[in-house]
Amino acid sequence: MKVKVLCRNPDDYVRETTRDIQRVPRNYDRTLHPFEVPREYTRALNATKMERLFAKPFVASLGGHRDGVSCLAKHAKSLSTVLSGACDGEVKVWNLSRRECLRTIPAHEGFVRAICSRFCGTSFFTVGDDKTVKQWRMEAPGYRVREEPLNTILGKAVYTGIDHHQSEGTFATCGQTVDIWDEQRTSPIRSFSWGVDSFSCVRYNPVETELLASCASDRSIVLYDMRESTPLKKVIMKLRSNTLCWNPMEAYNFTCSNEDYNLYTYDMRYLETPVTVHMDHVSAVLDVDYSPTGKEFVSASFDRTIRIFPKDKGHSREVYHTKRMQHVICVRWSADNKYVLSGSDEMNIRVWKANASEKLGVLTSREKAAVQYNQKLKAKFKNHPKVRRIAHHRHLPRDIFKQKRELRDMKEARRRKEQNVHKHSKPGSVPIVTEKEKHVVTVVE
Amino acid sequence: LLYIVFYGVSRLILRSYLKPPKRYWEVNAGEENGEAENTDVSPNQDNISKEQPDKIRDERRQKKKRSHGSFISGKKDPFPGEAPIPNEQLKKFQRGEKFQVVIAFRLGKVKETILRSEAASDLALKQAARYDLLLPEESGFLEGDDDEDTCTILQEDIADAVDITSGAKYFNLHLTQFGPYRLDYSRTGRHLLLGGKRGHVSCIEWQTKNLTCEINVMETIHDVKWLHSEAMFAVAQKQWLYIYDSKGIELHCIKKFNNVLRMQFLPYHFLLATASATGFLQYLDVSVGKEVSAIGTKLGRLDVMAQNPHNAIVHLGHPNGTVSLWSPNQREPLVKMLCHRGGVRSLTVDRSGTYMVTSGLDRKLKVYDIRAFKALHSYFLPAGASCLSLSQRGLLSAATGDVVQVYRDVWGGGSMSKPYMAHRVRGAVWGVDYCPFEDVLGIGHEAGFTSMIVPGAGEPNFDALDMNPYRSTKQRQEWEVKALLDKVQPELIGLDPGLLSKVDQATFEQKHKERVEALGYDPLATEKFKPRLKKRGRSSAGAVERRKKKVAHEDQKDTIRKTVEERMERENERKVKAQEQAEHGTRTALDRFKK
């Protein structure tokens, strides 16, 4: 007779001393793990609930401006430094990690319209309503030394926007024309205009560094090449665009914030139709900025909310608002992809988490693993109705909620009308226009 | 597994035959330049040509490995690449079919996502299959000598032959006063719960023979069951259902559950399913203490009950020979099968949820495939089986009178003429249950309890994250929290537990209905031809029918004409394309710059 009976030595399964961690022998046999799908589903549901439970996106409010914040800029090199300009002409330099103002500069008379940091981070430029462009040192002046600009350029008209080249000593301003400046000269080296009276925003392409795009008040977005004397092409839309931002990773795409409550992502090469129309705001969109990964962007709106959109989705994944935040004028996504900064009418700069339920600070490896596991589960079960309902639910202020419903009804009515017209007219005489095609008037080369 | 072992062994042997690596000072003067170069380069080229081009990641990993070792010495790896995994092992962990990606998939992003997730699951599959080799324990076995039947081997002999700890697992408890006994092992297999018909309840840590509690409830006991951990158990007494804690203190008396005869605990749902003498099947959620559902089965006294551990469906056996399958979500049985000509005496389901074994008053033992609800085998047992139980590794124990027989390979169609093991106890058997993760069968009978050694019954390797027999109190508490968080809702109980992960495909009718609702009209509807009313007898029924017949094929004519035209067009296009290709040859990447 040959016999073997299961007999385990407890020493193999129990920790040796109480200071050891417990032993966890595994066996991945499927029959030992029944109900894997329902259990995973339960976990996914719990993870989704936890996510909404821990969604506390508001980090800090930076107060100190004495008028509405009109513009924000990131430092080119330092993560913790942020520049902001206000409607009373003051520029403030903030330290984000200490949440305090480092410097206050009375930079302009009237609004500070735009700020940009030089690529090396040693100085920054401001433009204001007093028709000047000023360059400032990033370092604070010594004790009892007056704040003086490095350079001041007096222009003929008001400048509304400024952006610096990625690697050279040139910058672009916009106002009545789009001007390219050499840092060493006091007159523009090139001026572009295409029969329009004013521009609101100009941005350099982060990859093809000689390319520029600007938003004009005649409802157009104009593309330029710095090396040529004339603009490349422009697209005219139904309503005016306020600002635009290039996608830092796919730099042939840019997103513009429009007065018609929408944002439009365009492919620079095919301006005839936008790649995506991003809808959700219930008032004019004032500013937009991409995350450094190029996967998402944040938009600021006159409806007192900021929203975060995935770059290829038509609707936002997140909406931030507080009772006290008024019209949001400007918004920036921090370079470490973790925070969003918003500057609003009621003189505050607010710091938000880019991922609302993210835990701040250092995570242990087990925490990280748990977060990743939960993310995967949420992604796997995201289309199940229960999970979907919880994940998509956002509380909105009552007026915005009502407006949203109203807009939806209006849109539905318009769609129905169009359908009826199409149905009762001669076949082919009324073409079906898609949502993307609706908002573009024409493209001019 | 064997293959891998051989592979490893041969690898070792070969290594011992190969020379030790050459050191730099051992280079001969004559070979120095040319040959050294050659040896450096050639294996590299060899490997590249042998490489399978399908997986870039593998490629990279291999490259890294190569650059580590083999080149400097000039030695070749006799077993390049990863060790192969036998198909059987892979199959054990496979979930569903692989998705075949059509090459002409139009949506690039979808295709990419599918490919990536397939690669990830492939990797997981391989890792799980490889891990099998590292499992520390192997299952037990019992083999007789020549001309010796294993069923004739006595328990005493086995207990003598094996080591002391294992030998101590064969023991008898003489409890003649309050018998016959029902029993239940806790899910870890450490604790045993005994319930005597005349009111005796005791919890024993059976391996250390430590008595944790012993009470007499002074009432008839029909069944006992551990709840999710060894801290609580349920006792079905004469009238109500009681819950006690491990010290024997009465926690609850649940008067909603009366005259309970049999109980089953569904551990992942935290549900206690009870079957009563009045024909009610009730579910109690033990985590919140609420009755989930009460189903009046209208099938009489319910004293035969089993659960399917794969999908948490409760099986009930009835005196008319049927077995019915129940979930808490439906008032009617999910399935009703006629299994026996007489009443059903006992039934059990294996842990993979594939097979059900039933025994009836017609003295038959039947094996069913409960995925297809088909009988696989039918055996005749001379005395019939009163209690059935299946072990984790698929051994079937059947009690007939005072003899317990253990059968091997029941659904493989092995002959049932000789049992694998047999044991006679001192009284009629009242309950049998295998101890999880141990080679032990517990038998409750009229004269007490017998613990019988059945080599090869238990799963040798447990998963500590699921059930750990060696867990400490702290680990148990942590597990309890985790398990409660993962508690599956009773609504999810159904015949197929994997249904949630499958694509919910709407039928054409559903889609069409939604479309009609959205559009406000039916786009596919065609207007019926209504003949105009004519006078002077030309609208007689016959005339109307004749007129209808004239236009009967009109609508079809249109569609036929259209399809024919389309087909012709496609054909023409194809021809033109073929001609163009023939003229230009194949297009290259540079052709896009030609105008």
UniProtKB/TrEMBL annotation, chain A:
GO MF term list: ubiquitin-like ligase-substrate adaptor activity
Pathway connected to this protein: Protein modification; protein ubiquitination
One Pfam family of this chain: Sof1
Record's subcellular location: Nucleus, Nucleolus
Listed GO biological process terms: female gamete generation; maturation of SSU-rRNA from tricistronic rRNA transcript (SSU-rRNA, 5.8S rRNA, LSU-rRNA); protein ubiquitination
Keyword Ribonucleoprotein: yes
The keyword Transmembrane helix is annotated on this UniProt entry: no
Database matches in Gene3D superfamilies: YVTN repeat-like/Quinoprotein amine dehydrogenase
Any one GO cellular component localisation term in the record: small-subunit processome
Ranges of the WD repeats in the UniProt entry: 62-104, 278-309, 321-362
UniProt KW keywords: Nucleus, Repeat, Ribonucleoprotein, Ribosome biogenesis, rRNA processing, Ubl conjugation pathway, WD repeat
All residue ranges annotated as the Sof1-like protein domain in the record: 354-440
Family label: Belongs to the WD repeat DCAF13/WDSOF1 family.
Protein name in the entry: DDB1- and CUL4-associated factor 13
Gene: DCAF13
TrEMBL record, chain B:
Alphabetical list of InterPro entries matching this protein: BING4_C_dom (IPR012952), WD40/YVTN_repeat-like_dom_sf (IPR015943), WD40_repeat_dom_sf (IPR036322), WD40_rpt (IPR001680), WDR46/Utp7 (IPR040315)
Signal peptide stretch: none
Domain BING4 C-terminal: 419-497
Compartments it resides in: Nucleus, Nucleolus
Keyword Phosphoprotein: yes
SUPFAM superfamilies in the cross-refs: WD40 repeat-like (SSF50978)
Recorded superkingdom: Eukaryota
Keywords recorded for this protein, A-Z: Nucleus, Phosphoprotein, Repeat, WD repeat
WD repeat ranges per the UniProt record: 337-378
GO biological process: one example: maturation of SSU-rRNA from tricistronic rRNA transcript (SSU-rRNA, 5.8S rRNA, LSU-rRNA)
Disordered as annotated region, ranges: 33-87, 532-595
GO cellular component: 90S preribosome; small-subunit processome
Basic and acidic residues: bias regions: 48-61, 552-595
Pfam family of the protein (one): BING4CT
Keyword set includes Iron-sulfur: no
Subunit structure comment from the entry: Part of the small subunit (SSU) processome, composed of more than 70 proteins and the RNA chaperone small nucleolar RNA (snoRNA) U3. Interacts with DDX21, NCL, NOP2 and EBNA1BP2.
Described function: Scaffold component of the nucleolar structure. Required for localization of DDX21 and NCL to the granular compartment of the nucleolus. Part of the small subunit (SSU) processome, first precursor of the small eukaryotic ribosomal subunit. During the assembly of the SSU processome in the nucleolus, many ribosome biogenesis factors, an RNA chaperone and ribosomal proteins associate with the nascent pre-rRNA and work in concert to generate RNA folding, modifications, rearrangements and cleavage as well as targeted degradation of pre-ribosomal RNA by the RNA exosome.
The protein, known as: WD repeat-containing protein 46
Organism: Electrophorus electricus
